Amino acid sequence: MESQIYKIHQQLINKEISCTALVQEKLDLLQQNTFNTVNSLLEETAIELAKKVDAKIANGQEIGLLEGIPFGIKDVYMVQGTYTTASSDLLKNYKSAYTATAIQKLLDAGAIPLVKENCDSFGHGSSSENTIFGAVKNAVNPALVGGGSSGGSAVNVAKDYTIFSIGGDTGGSIRQPAGYNKVYGLKPTYGRISRYGLMAYASSTDCVGPIAKSLEDIRIVLNVMSGKDVKDQTTYKSDKIKKDLNTSNIKTVGYFKNFIESKAISNEIKVDFLAIIDKIKAKGIAVKELEFFDSDILVSTYYTLAMAETASNLSRLDGTNYGARIEGDTLKDTYSITRSEKFSEETKRRIVGGNQVLSQGFSDEIYLKAQDVRNQISARFTNDFKEVDIILSPVTPQNPPKIGDSLKDPLAMYLSDAYTVGFSLAELPTLTLPKGTNTGLQLTADKKNDAHVLQFANLLNDIL
Ligand code: GLN
């Protein structure tokens, strides 16, 4: 698909549409939608900003490329004065005191925020059913899940309710819902975009990233949000990715044989994936089979660390400084009653699991061991990227489940993250291209080579 951002920009400057009418149309669509994508609408601010854009155009002033472009924000980002609930009961009435860096950069570029989007509570989930706002429904088939945790964001883009949305990806939460709803979703290299103002799930893998209907829109939004931020010391300075996506430096593609031979993958996804490999070979690109860790090891390493980090991050939510508080007889009771009543079952499962792996007597055996395996995973990738420029994989082993099924079986849900979490542990840039298999294709490059991912995706767009 062509860039929606360029198209709307042209329509605005040619006065074919007004920004106010465009924003109102999208707000109406969001308001009436039956996919449960909306936690709160930012109606007043959006209309006010749109009027300013229209006034500028009427005065003959120039507008920037993102000026007047409506977008959505996963409800885990701070946007000053807006409800920021993380789809949780505990923060149902919490309002942000400041704005996240990534979102501020988009606002500074003139983009118009429409909506705080439904997601799994605190990013905990792979289906967007772990939410107080009702399960997000899949854009293609509403009987299926929207995917998670950034489900509302992916569905809004797929249904054209937003031009792009900003998701958050800790272990697949941008890539998997993008795949389930057939849109693009990018998790950049860890540190390329500031996490300041993103509610922390697992700080060592949390990434900010765009979801959109075209690669070009992914590139534009990525460039605007990237950069070093003194408020997030893991950020680094990066060059803007150029529009001309030259593919000549991509000569070898690899894929993990054991991902494709695993018992967990559906036959349909396997057959489709291998057909893509053949097409790539037919184009004269070398393809190398790689060996990798079993996906079970990737999933257990990821969940050990993610649970430990989220237990630690969420310890601040005890009814004192943020959100709901239920008084008990003692202060300790207040903490436990608030947390017991206001966190979801899934979030409590993770907090209990995380505190267990961090506790004395267990942490050496479990937490430190997971750190060690994580280092081995990263080292393996470093070696692999000496031989290949891109690693290709399915996004998920199976098609999206029906609404209700994942809640019954959390372990099955964790295992459905088999193909996304390894790349997160290694901090790699990785993109969902909505083509090839029913849940898309995942393209991954070495650290800081985000441009390679977009370049190869461009090439695949031509040959698939
Ligand atoms: N499904 C994974 C989890 O529940 C990833 C979620 C995410 O990236 N926020 O941890």
Folded structure, characterized:
The protein has a domain at 4-225: Amidase signature (AS) domain (Amidase signature (AS) enzymes, Alpha-Beta Complex). 42% of the residues lie in helices and 12% in strands. It contains 17 helices and 11 strands. The chain has helices at 4-13, 19-32, 43-58, 101-108, 151-158, 175-181, 215-225, 257-261, 267-282, 295-313, 331-342, 345-358, 364-387, 405-408, 410-415, 421-425, 450-463, and strands spanning 38-41, 70-74, 112-117, 164-169, 184-187, 207-212, 252-256, 286-290, 390-394, 430-433, 441-444. The chain starts with a helix and ends with a helix. The mean pLDDT is 97. The structure holds glutamine.
What is the gist of this entry?
The chain is 42% helix and 12% strand. It contains 17 helices and eleven strands.
CATH architecture of the domain at 4-225: Alpha-Beta Complex
Biggest β-sheet: strands ordered side by side in the sheet: 1-3-2-4-6-5-10-11-9-7-8
Terminal Cα span = 13 Å
Mean pLDDT: 97
Q: Give the CATH topology of the domain at 4-225.
A: Amidase signature (AS) enzymes
Ranges where pLDDT stays below 50 over 5 or more residues in a row are none
Kindly provide the name of the CATH class of the domain at 4-225: Alpha Beta
Give the CATH superfamily of the domain at 4-225.
Amidase signature (AS) domain
What is the subunit arrangement here? single chain
Q: Beta-strand level of the residues, as a percent range? A: 5-15%
- Strand tally, please? 11
Structural category is alpha/beta
What is the count of helical runs?
Answer: 17
Ligand list? glutamine
Q: Using the CA coordinates, give the radius of gyration.
A: 21 Å
Biggest beta sheet attributes: 11 strands, mixed
Order of helices and strands: HHEHEHEHEHEEHEHHEHHHHEHHHEEH
- Kindly state the percentage of residues in helix: 40-55%
